[in-house]
Amino acid sequence: MNIVSECKAYEKELIELRRALHKVPEIGGALPKTRKIVCEYLDEIGVPYRLNPEDDGLVADIVGGREGKTIAFRADMDALHVQEETGLDFASEIPGQMHGCGHDAHTATLLIAAKILNENKEHFRGRVRLLFQSGEETGSGAKIMIGLGALEGVDAICAMHVGNLAGDDHRAGDLIVLPGPVTAGKDKFTFTVFGQGTHSAFPERGVDPILIGARIVNACEEISARELPAGTRAVISFGTFQAGEDHNTIPKTAVLKGSTRVQDDDIRDFIGGRLVAIGESIATAFRGQCRVEVKKGSRTVFNDEKLSLCVQDAVAKVLGEDAVVKKISSALMGSDDFANYSSKIPGVYFFLHTNNKEKNIVKTNHNPGFDVDEEVLWKGVVAYVATALNYLK
């Protein structure tokens, strides 16, 4: 089979699927509209599947002509709590929700790959398992999949992510396949600061939780700069600071939330401990109190070296060596619950660069204006199909 010509033949269908999914972004584990599109397409192409009883994920299998190994591919289907600002004709039809991370493209790409692999299943031995997963953004979906047996009998697993997660140095259509650590472990933290409310004209009669919260933010920002060795891969970011409702009232409480991204488990634990110590001690110093919660999230994704070489080789043979990026200059500090899979069996999490400066498609993932260059999505299909055939040959 000519993989490029087969994948290019379904390019229009791929884009139509992606746009249909883009219109109906859904959050967490409840994805009824999204799952309906996926199920109807799998029914149309004749690929059997089973529905998850605990969420709206599903698992499909394509069985080859002879017995052999099993490789799985994961597509995450959930969206973000973001109001879309792209102005696209197929923009989100659900207020306050958007496919701002590219999961619509992930799902559409794997569906087209499923069609091609199913049409050519006599060319490979073994099995291709397709995991259409909910709840990646919430960190729940992979755990549910695994608990329901999605990895039973699976020898290896791969997943693709679109957008610009590997820096601006790449071309639209570059496939970035790296052995070793390719994400950071993610933890969420919450500081709840307790003060004493008062009139803003008499701050001395109360305890200002906003002032305490601001000092906590500044102190936490110093952890990376002054408490970790230079070059340590660690990021601490605050995402929300909520306190009060009126311009003339000092509130009783303030709530600050954020996340850490770290690739080393010892550093991860150290930062968690420092967050607790900083929050409690600063609040005490300024006559308040602080409750600190640190919730462990996704672990670091480590790409298996042998499987990485398999993916690199598969893509290079079809698209050429210059289509595969095997080394980048900066650390990748995003996170993904794909780590739950790759910590159990060999896995590879690779990237399809879909930003395109010439088309002004330059917004980062999770931005209200995020979009992808649809003209390179077919290369993601190539990566899946070529990898499956190379692994199962």
Detailed description of the structure:
This protein is an alpha/beta fold and 393 residues long. The protein is 34% helix and 24% strand. It has helices at 3-9, 11-23, 32-45, 103-119, 141-147, 209-226, 265-285, 305-319, 339-342, 377-392; strands spanning 49-51, 58-63, 66-76, 125-133, 156-163, 175-176, 180-181, 185-194, 198-199, 234-243, 249-250, 253-262, 289-296, 302-303, 324-325, 347-353. A hairpin with a 6-residue loop joins strand 1 (49-51) and strand 2. Helix 1 (3-9) packs across helix 10. The longest helix is centred in the C-terminal third of the chain and has 21 residues, at 265-285. The protein is elongated. The relative contact order is 0.19.
Based on the model shown, name its key terms.
alpha/beta, eight-stranded mixed beta sheet, 10 helices
